[in-house]
Design goal:
Blueprint (H helix, E strand, L loop, with lengths): L2 E7 L9 E7 L2 E7 L6 E3 L4 E2 L5 E2 L2 E2 L10 E6 L7
Parallel strand pairs: 1-2, 1-8
Antiparallel strand pairs: 2-3, 3-4, 5-6, 7-8
Bound molecules: zinc ion (ZN).
Length: about 80
């Protein structure tokens, strides 16, 4: 069973624990989170995010650090097309 988590919008450049922020790369807005397993910052640029903030597909930690098997369904609270 994959856990479902809700992350809140952060106010700094880097997301805190259980937060998401947006990085603006030219015309491209990239949602960025912090892994709940290893605490590394990870982008969601290969995911799609619904208007209600639901992230698809589920999020797997992109880092291969030993011991981090973080895998969750994620919802970005306050998401409105990245604004
Ligand atoms: Zn991780």
């Amino acid at each position: 069973m994959v856990e479902r988590l809700i992350f809140k919008k952060g106010n700094d450049k880097f997301p805190g624990v259980s937060e998401w922020v947006i990085w603006n790369r030219g015309d491209i807005l990239i949602p960025v989170i912090r892994c709940g397993g290893c605490n590394e910052v990870a982008t969601l640029n290969t995911h799609t995010i619904s208007d209600d903030g639901t992230v698809n597909p589920s999020v797997v930690c992109p880092y291969t650090k030993e011991g981090c098997n973080w895998h969750v369904w994620l919802k970005l609270e306050g998401w409105k097309n990245g604004s």
